TrEMBL record:
GO terms for molecular function: rRNA binding; structural constituent of ribosome. GO terms for cellular component: chloroplast; ribonucleoprotein complex; ribosome. This is Large ribosomal subunit protein bL20c. Binds directly to 23S ribosomal RNA and is necessary for the in vitro assembly process of the 50S ribosomal subunit. It is not involved in the protein synthesizing functions of that subunit. Belongs to the bacterial ribosomal protein bL20 family. PANTHER family: 39S RIBOSOMAL PROTEIN L20. It comes from the Eukaryota. It holds the Pfam family Ribosomal_L20. InterPro entries: Ribosomal_bL20 (IPR005813), RIBOSOMAL_L20_CS (IPR049946), Ribosomal_protein_bL20_C (IPR035566). GO terms for biological process: ribosomal large subunit assembly; translation. Keywords: Chloroplast, Plastid, Ribonucleoprotein, Ribosomal protein, RNA-binding, rRNA-binding. It is found in: Plastid, Chloroplast.
Length: 127
């Protein structure tokens, strides 16, 4: 059997890993074995945190909407607000509602008043 010289292939593989880990600190960017381990760890973390980011932003939007709905003007809870939104078929997602709550509170008040008024109107029709 002929001898196989793996220098080029191995060097190319290690160079690719080293380029990925070039911003890591200390031995994590220099030594091949630790670089490989840190690369695996970084990829696991990035995969896990992609889902976590969605979760965190949803929590942030809910907190912002809840804070505005509980202010002096509305006396409302978040869960009632969302429930009535769906009941009135005003389909606004939480991201947009949070942006409206931060940037334009008057418009947010208009939306909540519309929900409350429609609720009163339906109660009068039932009676």
């Amino acid at each position: 059997m002929t001898r196989v010289k793996r220098g080029y292939t191995a060097r190319r593989r290690r160079k690719k890993i080293r380029l990925f880990a070039s911003t890591f600190i200390g031995a994590h960017s220099r030594l091949t074995r630790t670089t490989t381990q840190q690369r695996m760890r970084a990829l696991v973390s990035s995969h896990r945190d992609r889902s976590r980011k969605k979760r965190d932003f949803r929590r942030l939007w809910i907190t912002r909407i809840n804070a505005v709905t509980r202010e002096d003007r509305l006396f409302y809870s978040y869960s009632l607000f969302i429930h009535n939104l769906y009941k009135r078929q005003l389909l606004l997602n939480r991201k947009i509602l949070a942006q409206i709550a931060l940037s334009n509170k008057n418009f947010f008040d208009i939306i909540s008043n519309k929900i409350i008024n429609q609720k009163e109107n339906t109660n009068q029709i039932k009676e």
